[in-house]
User: Which sequence fits this backbone?
DNA sequence: GTCTATAGTAGGATAGAC
DNA sequence: GTCTATCCTACTATAGAC
């Protein structure tokens, strides 16, 4: 083989990202990542002690990219900070698109296989994504932080649900999925803003 | 070994259901199902030509059980047909609980691995679940079928999202996840019912 | 840091005996 | 219909040469 790399570690992470994009988490294989990078199956073990550690590195990269995508979308839709609802809608669409192209989202960032792993990148990215939505939600609902905190899991559930259902083919196309996600979060924000003290239904 | 079964096929499907509940789709293995059922690794192949066919059978069973769970919950919360919103909330909670106990939901019922498979049980169950929600949604929003049709994917996205996020540990406990799902779908129905002709936000 | 070689594990699937 | 035996494949991980 005799291939020489400037940065094998990064190349392997890229290959791993590709593998997940193609076949989901179970398709992440150290051996296949090595094959695609042009090195032997043993080489990756100089950079990652085990498949688990490799997965953590790939997930951290994905989390960072996801944070970037959502932040860019939110900022782009609301450059002056006056349109928090538009920012939330844009972030929702960005999430659905990200998952469609990478097959990676909250499900990988917070993957069960990663429980108990103390990776700074992962934790930070998770909090960063939450902050992107939280800040806008506070702005969109009139400054009530508690309402925003309640809205956060709803936002995550909706965008993750749309992204997942899109993956299994329940939407006609990607744009439909993204539109449903954006429309739904907007409806919820609107309902919250107009009646932020109404009780929850269906206990 | 020499084990004798009245219905090995059914026993294998039960074992397969257990495997998925424990480790998700990738944990479904013909060999392991055989082991747990007390037969040789070759025995299942008398009943299922391949792992794929085995998966279809397990998924069909899951779809049937899911339909049952959601229908029972909806009927139980609305025995007289006068409380469609309560029925929708109950179905939402039932979905989250079902996924928590079985690790199977829309993601398996409509699994990518099953694309193009023409299994009657799967198709029927998918439509049945849709109907459970559609009928109640029409009742809850004042008889507007189009609003109900639009609401269906939102319902699915929300309950699936809550169930998935619960699996990766983003809720404090199962009841919180189910409550968020029920609360969110109720808020949406309420918003739809009060303003069924409002335009969608965030195009 | 990367290679070759190898041990160990596990699953999918088939052939042929009973 | 089930068994034993077997083949093939693929991946994780390690040892030791370069």
Assistant:
């Amino acid at each position: 083989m005799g291939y020489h790399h400037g940065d094998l570690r990064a190349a392997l992470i890229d290959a791993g990202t590709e593998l997940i994009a193609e076949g989901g988490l179970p398709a992440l294989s150290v051996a296949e990542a090595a094959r695609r990078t042009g090195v032997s199956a043993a080489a990756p073990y100089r950079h990652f002690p085990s498949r688990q550690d490799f997965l953590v590195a790939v997930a951290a990269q994905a989390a960072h990219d996801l944070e970037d995508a959502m932040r860019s979308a939110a900022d782009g839709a609301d450059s002056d900070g006056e349109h928090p609802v538009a920012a939330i809608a844009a972030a929702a669409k960005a999430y659905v698109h990200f998952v469609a192209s990478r097959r990676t989202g909250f499900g990988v960032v917070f993957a069960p296989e990663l429980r108990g792993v103390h990776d700074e990148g992962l934790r930070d990215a998770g909090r960063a994504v939450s902050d992107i939505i939280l800040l806008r939600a506070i702005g969109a609902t009139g400054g009530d932080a508690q309402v925003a905190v309640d809205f956060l899991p709803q936002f995550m559930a909706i965008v993750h649900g749309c992204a997942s259902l899109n993956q299994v083919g329940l939407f006609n196309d990607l744009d439909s999925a993204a539109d449903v996600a954006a429309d739904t979060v907007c409806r919820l924000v609107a309902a919250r803003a107009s009646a932020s003290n109404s009780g929850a239904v269906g206990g």
In short: Chain A has two domains: 1-49, 52-202. The two ends of chain A are 63 Å apart (CA to CA).
